[in-house]
C-alpha cells in the first residue's frame, strides 16, 4: 500500500478519534444537560497544564491523571453550585456565565505560567513500522486510548444503572423525580463528569500540541461544531460529528493549509445549522 | 410496608402567577381509595402535583401522618413513602420496559413483579422493548405496575385507566383491592366513572379549581356526579 | 437634554484638564468605546451576545489602513474612503446576522459561538495573508489624517465620533425599533406573533453594531499608524464584552464608560497591580451574576434627576394595513406528528368569518397544537389552512400575524420589563408602522379609538409608565388580550383566556370578548375548559378528541351527543 495513503489515513483516524474524546465532555454537558459550557476548552487546558506540571516535576506521566481529575472535579463542583445550578437547559445564559469563567481560567493560567508556549516531551517517543510506513507510537497509542475511552463510556452509559438513571433524568426529569432520583445531585454529578472528561482529554493531547493559556478557544469551537453537525444528546451523533468535522478538517488542511481547513469546518457547520439544525443524528 | 395517612387542607396553588386550585381539603386513609373526579382543566392534575411537590403551595398544607411536608421536593416525598404515577409521559420512552421497572432496585430481578406479570402478561412479553414503542394503554399499565410494585403506603395515580382496555381495567381494580386490604392509601384521579365507581370509598368532585362535592361514595348520588362530569 | 449637554460639556473640557498622555489614551480608548456601544446595543438591548466584534473593528481598520497607504499622496481620497470601510463592516455584520439567526430556536447561543469562530478565523487570515495584511507584524507606516497631528486632535476626533455614535444610539433606543429590540430580548415569541420579523430585527441590530465597530476601526488605522492582527482577534473582542458588561450593558452610556474607564485603567495597572487581570475576570463574573447594571447602575439615581419629565400629546395611529375584510378560517386535513406520536390526525374544521366559537376537548386532544399550526409555530406534515382565499399553512408566524391573525397565549405573555404604554404601542405598530416609521420616536405616542375605549373600561391600561411585570395576573391577562385586540384582527385565537382569574375578572373578560366580537366583526375562537363560559359565549362548539374533530354544533347539540358523553364520562368499552 502506498505509504503516503497509509499515513494520511492514520492521520484522519487520529484527528477523528482525538476529536471524539475531546468532545465527550461537552457532549455530556451540552448534549445531556443543555448547558453551553464555553469554558470547556479551558478544562482541557487545565488537563494540559497538569500534564506539564507533572512532567516538570519529573513524575511519571500517568500521575497527571489523578491531579487533573482532582482539579477539574473540584472546580466543576464549585462552578456547578455557584453558576450553573439555576440555569439547566438554558444554553444562552450558561454561555454568558461560563464565558466569564473561561476568561478567569485563562487569566489565572497566564498569571501562573505566562503567555508563552510550553512543550511537553512525548511520553512514548519514537516511531513504529505500520503497514509499510513509520508512524509515531504515541499517536497510535492515543488512537487506541481514545477509542477505548469513548467505547468504555458509551457502554457504561448504556448498561449501568447510573447511566440509565441519567438517561431517564434527561428524557423525563419529572418522572425521574417520582422514581426518587435526586435530579439535582445527578445533574451535578453529570456536570462534574463532563469537566473531568475534558481534563482527561487535555492530558492526552498535551504532548502533541503547544500548551498555552489560549489553547482552549480552538477546542471549544471545534467540539461545539462536532455536536452541531453530529447532533446533540446521542452517541451516534457524537461519533458522526467527530467523523465529519475531523475528517473534513484533516483532508482540507492536508490538501491546502490549516486556515482553509478551519474555514471549511466553519462553513460546513453553518450549512448544517441552516439546513439540518438538529444534526445528522437528530434525537427524538 | 407500614400504613400511613395523607391529609391536605385548604390547598391553593397553580403554575407561576396563575392560581388553578383553591381551598381543597381531603384525606387518604390507610386501606381506602379517594377518587378525584371532574372535567378536564378543573385542576385535578394540579392537585396531584401539589400533593407530590411539583408545585409550591400558595396556601394550605399537606400532612403525612400529621407532619407537614410542603417543603419536600418530589424525590424526597418518594423516599418518605409516597408513590406517584403521572397522567402525561408516564414512562421513560428511551428505556426498556425492564429498566422502567427495575431502575431504582438493587438488581434487575423480576421476581417481585411475578404477580403483576400474571395479570398483565403483555408487559412480560415486551420486557426488552423500549417503552416508547408501547401503546398509550400499555404505557399506563407499565406505569401502574411500577407504582404499585414500589410497595409504598401512599399511592397517587393520575388517570391510570386512560387508554386501557376494560379487561385490564378490571385487573387494575383487583390489584388496587389487594393493596387496600394490606392498608395502602390511594388517591386516584379518574375520568372513567364506571371504573371510579368500582374502586372509590370516597369522592372529591372538582370544578373550576374548587371542591364541589365531597363524601363517602355510598352517600353520593350518581346523577349528581354526572352533572359535574358532563359538558 | 440636560444629560446630553452635560456630557458634551465634560467631553470638551476634559483634555484641558488632563495631561497630553491621557488625552491621547482617551483618544484611543474612545475608539474602542465606539465599538463597545455596539456590543451594548446587541447585548443590552436586543439580548444576544456577539463574542467577536474585533472582526468588524479590525476589518474596517485594515481596509482604512490599506486605503491610506494606497492613497498616501492624495490623502483626501483616503479620508473620503473611510465611510466605505465602515459600510463594509456594517454590511458584513448584517449578512452574518441574516444567515445565523435563521435557525429558529436557541439562536442566541449558537450566534455567540459563530461570531467567536469568525473572529478567530479572521485572526488566522490576518496573520497568514502576508501580502495584503502584512502578516503577524501587521500593516505599518499608515499615514495620519491630514491636519490632525496633535495629541489633542486625536482626542477630539475620537470624542466627536463617540458623541455622534452615542447620539445615534440614543435616538435608536428611544425610537420604536429600540422598544422592539428590548421586547425581543424579553419575549421573542410574543413579538413574532405581532407580525414582527425578529430575525431581521436582530440582524439590523447586529449590522448597526458592525457599523459602530467599523467606525472605531476606520479611524484607528490613521490614528495609530499601525494595524496588527491583535486588533481583529479575540483579545479586543473579549475586552469589548467585559467593558460593556462592567460599564452597564443595558444603558446608553454604560458601555462607553466601561471602555474609557476600565480600558484605560487596565492599560495603566495591568503591569503594576499583581493579578489585575484575574481580578477583572472575577469582577466580570460578579457583575454578570449579581449586578448586571454595572457602573451605570450606580449612577442610576443621579441619571433619574437629569431626565426631564415632559408629557407630550398622543397621536392617532393610521388605519391598520391588515385591515382587510373578515375571512373564513378553514383547516383541512392537517396532520402533525412528533416522532411516533400523532398529535393532529387529518383534522378538518372550518369557522364562519364572524362570531364567537369555542373549542373544547380532553387533554391531549390537540387544541393548542391546532392553534400552533394556524399561527405558524408548528409544522404540519400534510393538509391546508385557508384564511379567506389565501393558503397560510407553512408560513412563518410573523407572516401569519400580519395577515390578521392575532393570538392570546395560555399563560399571560406580555413584555414584562417594558412599560404598559410600550406594550400597547407595540400592538399598535403591528400591521400599521412601515419599516421606516420604526425609526420615528413619535410613534411611541400612538393611540387609537379602540385603545381609548379599552382604557375607559380598564383605567390601569392608561397608567402608561408602570412596568407590565408589576401588574397582577388578572391585569396581565387583560393587557395581553387588549394588545391582541388592538391589532384589529380578522381571526382572534384565545387560549384559555380566563385561566386563573377570579369570577369578577372572568366576567370582565367575557364582557370584552362580546364587545370585541361586535366591534371587530371578525371570528373569535376560544379554547376553553370552563363549561359555564362556553355556554355563555359560544355560538358554535367544536369538540376535539385524539387530534380529530369529534363533534360540532350548538352547546345543546353537543351536550346531547353520545360520542361526546363517552369521551367525557368514560365507560365500559
Kindly report how far apart the N and C termini of chain A lie: 43 Å
- Quaternary structure type: heterotrimer
Q: Biggest interface, and residues per chain?
A: A-C, 38 and 38 residues
- Count the E strands of chain A: 2
Q: Report the portion of residues of chain C in β strands.
A: 5-15%
Q: Examine the secondary-structure arrangement and name the CATH architecture of the largest domain in chain C.
A: Orthogonal Bundle
What fraction of the residues of chain A are assigned to beta strands by DSSP? under 5%
Keywords:
heterotrimer, B: 231 residues, alpha/beta, Rossmann fold, C: 573 residues, 6-stranded mixed beta sheet, 4-stranded antiparallel beta sheet, 24 helices, 12 strands, 56% helix, elongated
Short description:
The complex is a heterotrimer of chains A (284), B (231) and C (573). Chain B is an alpha/beta fold and 231 residues long.
Give a description of the structure.
The complex is a heterotrimer of chains A (284), B (231) and C (573). Chain A has 284 residues and is mostly helical. Chain A has a domain at 23-214. In chain A, 74% of the residues lie in helices and 3% in strands. Chain A has helices spanning 3-33, 40-56, 64-84, 91-113, 137-159, 161-171, 173-178, 183-205, 215-230, 235-255, 258-275; strands at 127-130, 133-136. In chain A, strands 1-2 form a two-stranded antiparallel sheet. Chain A is globular. The N and C termini of chain A lie far apart (43 Å). With 231 residues, chain B is α/β, with parallel strands linked by helices. Chain B has a single domain, classed as P-loop containing nucleotide triphosphate hydrolases (Rossmann fold, 3-Layer(aba) Sandwich), CATH 3.40.50.300. Helix content of chain B is 33%, strand content 26%. Chain C has helices spanning 2-17, 20-45, 54-70, 75-100, 107-128, 130-133, 151-174, 176-186, 188-192, 198-224, 234-247, 254-269, 276-289, 294-298, 300-306, 367-374, 397-402, 420-429, 449-457, 473-486, 503-520, 531-537, 555-560, 562-569, and strands spanning 315-316, 329-338, 341-350, 355-360, 382-387, 390-391, 405-408, 446-447, 491-495, 523-527, 540-545, 548-553. In chain C, strand 11 and strand 12 form a beta hairpin. In chain C, helix 2 (20-45) packs parallel to helix 7, helix 2 (20-45) packs across helix 12 and helix 3 (54-70) packs antiparallel against helix 4. Chain C folds into 2 domains: 2-305, ABC transporter involved in vitamin B12 uptake, BtuC (Orthogonal Bundle), CATH 1.10.3470; 329-569, 3-Layer(aba) Sandwich (Rossmann fold). Chains A and C meet through helix 4, helix 9 and helix 11 of A and helix 5, helix 11 and helix 13 of C.
